[in-house]
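Late entry, evening session. Most of the bench is empty. Finally got around to the prediction I had been postponing all week. Sequence below, unchanged from the version circulated by S.P.
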Amino acid sequence: MSVALPAARVARFCVFLLLAVAGLFYVKWHPYYDRAFVAASGHSIGHSILMGDAASAPAPSWDAALGYALAYGKAIWQAMVLGLLLGSGIQALLPVDWVRRVLGGRGLGGVLAGGLLAMPGMMCTCCAAPVVVGMGRHQAAPGAAMAFWLGNTVLNPATLVFTGFVLGWHWTVLRLCLGVPMVFGLGYLASRMAGAVASTPGDTLVVEPEPRSLAGVAKRWAWIFGRMAVRLIPEYVVIVLLLGAFRAWMFPAIGPAIGDQWLWIAAMALAGMLFVIPTAGEVPIVQAMLALGMGGGPAAALLLTLPPVSLPSLAMLARSFPWRVLAAVALAVVGFGVLGGAIASWLAMR
């Protein structure tokens, strides 16, 4: 069944738009709408996935690895499937010139477009990664792709609301004041650093002819989906298992001893940048740690560094950005965490 190319483009765009809207409504918008009322009434959105009600994470072991991986996987698997569908759908359904027109600019305009398009997504850093991979392979500029990646977590409207109801609105203000420059500033930094380097340095970018039949579109979409899943998921699972196993080393026993000293602020900022959590998981983690007596400085560092990047998501994007861009962004996220911790300490935030 062949269709004229302009009509086929419109039809494929409508399919992608329907997938995005229906998928996000089912996985993100509707559940988070309900959870906002829970946060408002109970000032909580659940237990800390990091350590539950305990003062420390379990000792390194296979049980600790598997337990965290299962809890994390249960929280994010639907969003991961949606991320893979959207990332492959970008390549199979959207024309390259359309993506390039919206997200291909290497200036501030492209960065702004990427960051603003991220806000309805509200995905965790790992679930957003397949979408970013698809954007890069369809010639989105590095800065726009980076802003989209960071914006999904940092500018997540639902998480900002949860933070206000659970931790207090002063924590939301802190996150917004540092989150906006983090998303758009680091997006612009990625654009400048990438320069003339292709957005897919590990792969040769090949723009395939657009299929003209529905069967051709479906076959191409399924093939890209399978290729992305095989490439991204195995290394992702291994790193999540390792982080789950050794999280007690990254987050020692929490209590009043972890105060507003610079060493603790920097340590929590680094640990938060490396660790992986589901969307909004930082809110109950910080709430539990504050209840155990942790200082506001280290708590603020975690609030700012747990969501945006993680070791698994950095590995997933290793072929989509030059390594020096990912390293610079990861270090900058730690820097924002340290800055946020210093501000929270100075303001004596609790």
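Two things to note before I forget:
The chain has one domain: 5-346.
The first helix runs from residue 5 to 42.
Will write this up properly tomorrow.
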